[in-house]
Amino acid sequence: MEFKTLAIVGLGTMGAGIAQTAVPLGFDVVGIERDEQAVEAGRARIAAGLAKFVAKGRFTEEQAAQALARLRTSTDRAAIAGADIVIDAAFEDVDLKRELFRDFERHASPTAVLASNTSTIPLVIMAAETSAPERVVGLHFFNPVPLMDLVEVIRTPATSEETIQAAVELSKALGKSPVVIKDGPGFIGNLLVVPFLLDAIRAFERGVASMEDIDAVLRLGFNHPMGPFRLSDLIGLDIVHDMAARMYEEYRDPKYWPPPLLKQYVRMGWLGRKTKRGFYTYD
């Protein structure tokens, strides 16, 4: 299966990152958002990301302009028609995902791969909304997409081998390193990292050490690029909370239950870097 055109539904942090990765490599991208304001915000994210690479010498300004010209945007989900793959990068809401996949089947080519970048919602929920579950696959990119190598390729019990192989080859064409994983809440990355982040918060709540010292232990003792509090702020505390709550709902394991401090910060609107305040403050 050859991919030339990617449709990406949702141009937030992850969707914009996927688009930014794809257009310089010659892929045509159709970006779908809910309204014109969100479309313009998504375009601005992609343009800003390309500009950073120009500043670092990765691209010339002309190459960045040519890449951006391969991006089309729309507020109409019917614009996914003709794409070789449709990637859901919308907000992590089960009902929204179900609705999207019903629309994907309605508007997409009958041979298109139907993918989701979901981080915790089981793919079977989305596959069940279509009459072609063999074409449904997970493509879980990691943030920031243009810099992170890993893509988790998620296989449901119904996903065909042809679809898995196509998803693997697309990941490689995007310069990523794919790992094929069976469907399950959290997959592998979040299954392991979410309890790690929650345990760090609980240790801070108990007064074991300061946030700064806990982060320092992970950076200096285990060579992590950033500690759990900086990482949580980068991911978004609301996203960490929702991933944990969703995984607790599936597994009923207390290690996934969001700590009270995390809930308080989310309720205060202190969501991390995107709001300039999380566990740390940002200028």
Distance between the termini: 46 Å
Largest sheet report: 8 strands, mixed
Q: How many DSSP H or I helices?
A: 11
- Mean pLDDT comes to 96
Short synopsis of the structure:
The chain is α/β, with parallel strands linked by helices. It has helices at residues 13-22, 36-55, 61-69, 94-107, 123-127, 161-173, 189-205, 211-222, 228-235, 237-251, 260-268; strands spanning 5-9, 28-32, 71-74, 85-88, 113-116, 136-141, 150-155, 177-182.
Describe this structure in words.
The chain has helices spanning 13-22, 36-55, 61-69, 94-107, 123-127, 161-173, 189-205, 211-222, 228-235, 237-251, 260-268; strands at residues 5-9, 28-32, 71-74, 85-88, 113-116, 136-141, 150-155, 177-182. It is α/β, with parallel strands linked by helices and 283 residues long. Strands 3-2-1-4-5-6-7-8 form an eight-stranded mixed beta sheet. α1 (13-22) packs across α2 and α7 packs across α9. The chain is globular.
List the helices and strands and how they pair.
Blueprint: E1 5-9, H1 13-22, E2 28-32, H2 36-55, H3 61-69, E3 71-74, E4 85-88, H4 94-107, E5 113-116, H5 123-127, E6 136-141, E7 150-155, H6 161-173, E8 177-182, H7 189-205, H8 211-222, H9 228-235, H10 237-251, H11 260-268
Parallel strand pairs: 1-2, 1-4, 2-3, 4-5, 5-6, 7-8
Antiparallel strand pairs: 6-7
